[in-house]
Input
Amino acid sequence: MIRNAWSLAIMAALLALAACGGRGHAEMVDCRKYNLSPSEYYDKISGVPGAINNQDRQFICNAAMGESAGVVFARMAARRAASPAVRDYAQRMDVDHAKAHEEIASLARGQAGVAAPAGLDSERLAKRDLLAGLSGPAFDSAYLRASVEEDKQLLELYQSEVTSGGSPTLRRFAADNLTVLQERLRMTQSVGGRATF
Output
């Protein structure tokens, strides 16, 4: 019951972000300040083997934010893309990014005192606003470019977690999803080549 309520809250936040297709207000996330637990808690666990470290907290924050951006951009593209190939791709990305965000949020809940944000940082909010001002082939190109950028950032983030993360659970999740991210990047680049503008 609690898990379902949490999932609904996350999806409501993502839908609210997606609904802000223009220059609306959205939760601003700054992962440099991401620390949702008392500092004394982190002091206590810092020496515990397998405990989350700062890399893990940054991974949760940035991965969740990247997947949130993927949902927001995909929902815009599903409504606004000029190319049928881009619209089809966006619908798939909506599902993929939402599923990935829920997995990250679930893993975060499993780490005491950590939560996955559903907002975007200033860079991604600026991309959303840029997309909101475009239409036709210009929108499609900008959306695919933003998707490639997000996929590359997520790939780098996941690779960093595999090598530097403190939590075996998060490291395993990152390692298991590297192939998925690589395939998603290839698919995005392929759709860019196939799209009829």
Q: What stands out?
A: The radius of gyration is 17 Å. Confidence is low (pLDDT under 50) at residues 8-12, 14-25, 36-47. Helices lie at 2-19, 39-45, 54-80, 84-110, 122-132, 136-164, 168-194.
